[in-house]
Design brief:
9 helices, antibiotic resistance, Amioglycoside_AcTrfase, Aminoglycoside N(3)-acetyltransferase, Antibiotic_NAT-like, EC 2.3.1.-
Length: 259
């Protein structure tokens, strides 16, 4: 008979500590609650375990992206017909408590007392801990995952990237790495925004989406080079890596792949 491992905050804390998460450190976490298996306390227990692992001097960060704050008719430049404008009018404005489709753990952290959140309408991050205000303080509207963004701050502070039951297709740090490549892919973001109390549509540029084309390959190659610590937490395959060597490797490989 298979042994069912029950995951709780203590198991999460011990698991990520074993994989190299240190007290006082900064981590950015990408996760799948269901991949962990039976979690006593659900997503709240995962957040509690992560916070316990970094301690009172550490900080836990999650991507809290809100792609629902977007133009439903990006192919229509300027004002559209009544149907287009009605659909655009239903798009919510970003606000501090807006839920993210990034999963149960990010939404649990968004409900945490004392959490901070950056203000980008589509690409915010949320954080809890000693340096939560620093990591979320600034984020440009254009290139929201590039230089000057929370990811840039995390890079400078040598944050650790934690993947709990997810692969590199969910590793948002790869977008930051690609933004540093001169011939990177590009996309347009378009979202509603308040300017002097008036709702307007803002258009900005950013690094393009990967959609599984190169990111899983680059992440796998970095792991083969020995830059990743791997282990099991509950039923989930988990990985932890230092973002600085990871970004250096990914920037070089993406530069080669995007020629």
């Amino acid at each position: 008979m298979a042994v069912v491992v029950v995951v709780d905050a203590d198991v999460v804390c011990a698991g990520v500590r074993e994989l190299g998460v240190a007290e006082g450190g900064v981590v950015i976490v990408h996760s799948s609650l269901s991949a962990l298996g039976n979690v006593d306390g659900g997503a709240d227990a995962v957040v509690r375990g992560l916070l316990r692992a970094v301690g009172s001097a550490g900080t836990v960060v999650v991507p809290a992206f809100t792609p629902q704050v977007a133009d439903p008719f990006p192919e229509v430049p300027g004002p559209g017909d009544a149907e287009v404008e009605e659909a655009r009018g239903r798009v919510p404005l970003f606000h501090e408590g807006l839920v993210t489709p990034m999963g149960a753990v990010p939404n649990a952290l968004l409900r945490w007392e004392g959490r901070r959140r950056s203000r980008h309408p589509q690409a915010s991050v949320a954080a809890v801990g000693a340096r939560a205000e620093e990591v979320t303080r600034r984020q440009p509207l254009g290139y929201a995952v590039g230089v000057g963004s929370p990811f840039d701050w995390l890079y400078r502070e040598r944050a650790r990237i934690v993947l709990l039951g997810v692969g590199h297709d969910r590793n948002s740090f790869l977008h930051y790495a690609e933004s540093l490549v001169p011939r990177h892919r590009r996309k347009v973001r378009r979202f509603p925004y308040l300017v002097d109390g008036e709702r307007v549509w803002v258009r900005t540029d950013d690094v393009g989406d990967d959609n599984g084309r190169f990111f899983p390959q680059v992440g796998a190659e970095f792991g083969e080079a020995g830059g990743v610590r791997r282990g099991k937490i509950g039923a989930a395959d988990c990985q932890v890596m230092d973002c600085v060597p990871f970004v250096g490797f990914a920037q070089r490989r993406l530069g080669e792949l995007l020629r």
